[in-house]
Amino acid sequence: MPPCPGYGRNEAAPRPDGTAVAPYRAANAVGCGGSERVTTPTIEVDDLGRDFGGFRAVDGLSFAVPAGTVFGFLGPNGSGKTTTIRLLLGLLEPSRGRATVFGHDSRLGADEIRRRSGALLEHPGLYERLTAEENLDFFGRAWRLSERERLERGQELLRHLGLWERRRERVGAWSRGQRQKLAIARVLLHRPELIFLDEPTAGLDPVASASLRHDIAALAGREGRTVFLTTHNLAEAEQLCGLVGVIRRGRLLALGHPDELRARAGGPRAEIVARGLDAAMLARVRDRPEVATAELRDGRLLLDLRAGADVAAIVALLVGGGAAVEEVRRGAATLEEAFLGLMKETR
């Protein structure tokens, strides 16, 4: 829903110690005359914390999200993800630290933050007795869009999300996936610069999930918006996100590009499918300097390799030893493996 007038002042505030928030220097960004362009991140969090009685839900978070990024905020249930979103939107006040969004302190500028944001949290926020058109018209009026803006933007979103032919149907009769798509349209209706999506594909079947992921990526890419995404689907985060943060028990465990987090879980890997593999051949492979670990499993040779490893040399070794190599696959640790590794480290 739109912000209520008079919630708070919109000016940004300094840190409690009086220092200014450091600007974000965009990677590979240059301004006029070739100088580096300095920009402020859409979101900046500095030692943010929130307590509920004796329970610490968010504990000393510090991170920044550059404009135009799809940011994945990953963690198990109860780790503080939704609480963090509510802090960023100014729906909760921090117990300590500071959060700024668009340069506005969340305690002082919540009105402006919410005006420029869209959020899909636990519930779709739709009226089931209204049609899709009526829902978008209602929310467009709430955002004070003109009649022309409501009609044009509503048609644009409904067509893009594949809902145009069902625009005059009551939403209560729709599937969960269709309602979730309409909820995304509601969130994007007023062209927010920042979009919060809390588990947007939870409970959807695989086809609906894949379709919604495509829509999120297309809309974010086409309109250049910043997306703050929480999800338990690690493959989803790997596909969508340019920056990922991992949180557990309110604390940030890791922050970086998915490739960086995968690299922490181990180096390159290879899987070789072959006939004629035996223990002697496995021992020779393990003696190779580029091989960190090697394991035989159901006719497959599973290798953890060191940086710069030459898989062709290993294949030649196997063929020279009499093995019949049928297939070679190269890869790296998945984001899910990196995430589970972080969870084990912090038990």
TrEMBL record:
Q: Sorted alphabetically, which InterPro entries does this protein's record hold?
A: AAA+_ATPase, ABC_transporter-like_ATP-bd, P-loop_NTPase
Q: Which residues form a coiled coil?
A: none
Short name of one Pfam family: ABC_tran
List, alphabetically, the PROSITE patterns matched.
Answer: ABC_TRANSPORTER_2
Q: Where are the transmembrane segments?
A: none
| GO MF annotation list | ATP binding; ATP hydrolysis activity
Keywords from the UniProt entry: ATP-binding, Nucleotide-binding, Transport
Where in this chain does the record put each ABC transporter domain?
43-274
Q: Which family does it belong to?
A: Belongs to the ABC transporter superfamily.
Q: What is this protein called?
A: ABC transporter domain-containing protein
Which taxonomic lineage does the organism of this UniProt entry have? Bacteria, Pseudomonadati, Thermomicrobiota, Thermomicrobia, Thermomicrobiales
